[in-house]
Amino acid sequence: MTNPEEKRNSIRFAVAIAKLAAHGFDVYRYNLLSDTSYFEKNPVVNDLLSRDPGCLPITLINGAAAQMHRLPSNEELAAWAEVDLGQLEGKQEIRLENQK
């Protein structure tokens, strides 16, 4: 990933899925290089890759392909998860307390 826009998009996506996970959703992100067995063992992903080797990234929802060739937008994630878009965007608030 050499393109700065792709890097920002990947970070945005990572934040959004972390927020979905914090709201109780089961969200997983796999990397072809480090999670090769997942790609080999998942029949949907394996089939898609055999038909279109350039289809990554693939977004699966409940085991079905929802999108290929790009990361989903926050709007798409919010619609699929049926959550308010604001839950996926913006800065997270952190409360720090001084413990003496």
TrEMBL record:
Q: Which GO terms describe its molecular function?
A: DNA binding
Q: Which GO terms describe its biological process?
A: negative regulation of DNA-templated transcription; response to arsenic-containing substance
Question: What's the protein called, per UniProt?
Answer: Arsenic metallochaperone ArsD family protein
Source organism lineage? Answer: Bacteria, Bacillati, Bacillota, Bacilli, Bacillales
